[in-house]
């Protein structure tokens, strides 16, 4: 089930109001692949609350002097780390299930 924070339902104008960023800045961050909105059938951008958080974080890092490519690289490293952690977690769950006979083969 998708949490409300992940649902892409917020139009760009509202995102602009929430973040204090201009529509132009938001589109620029989209071009740089720092945020990926969905598009409605009519082509309208739809953002999630997670996207709003990311845009605020990006704006703060830009204000601190970071470049968009540095932010993009940092996000890619974070995604890889999260992916590795999820894989470790799944492996541990599997090992525990085998150890404690929680996994039953199909009959």
Order of helices and strands: EHHEEHH
Name of the CATH class: Mainly Alpha
Low-confidence stretches: none
Shape: extended
Return the CATH topology. Multidrug-efflux Transporter Regulator, Chain: A, Domain 2
Let me know the average pLDDT: 88
Q: What is the CA-atom radius of gyration, in angstroms?
A: 19 Å
Looking across the biggest beta sheet, what order are the strands in?
Answer: 1-3-2
Which structural class should the secondary elements be placed in? mainly alpha
Count of extended strands: 3
Tally of DSSP helical segments: 4
Q: What is the CATH architecture assignment?
A: Orthogonal Bundle
Q: Report the biggest beta sheet as strand number plus sense, adding barrel if it closes.
A: 3 strands, antiparallel
Q: Quote the beta fraction.
A: 5-15%
Query: How widely separated are the two ends?
Result: 30 Å
How many domains would you count in the coordinates? Answer: 1
Helix % is: 55-70%
Structure explained in plain terms:
The chain is mainly α and 107 residues long. It has a single domain (10-99), classed as Multidrug-efflux Transporter Regulator, Chain: A, Domain 2, CATH 1.10.1660.10. Helix content is 60%, strand content 7%. It has four helices and three strands, in the order E-H-H-E-E-H-H. The chain has helices spanning 12-19, 23-31, 49-63, 68-99; strands at 10-11, 38-39, 45-47. Strands 1-3-2 form a three-stranded antiparallel sheet. A hairpin with a 5-residue loop joins strand 2 and strand 3. This is MerR family transcriptional regulator. Keywords: DNA-binding, Repressor, Transcription, Transcription regulation. It comes from Paenibacillus residui.
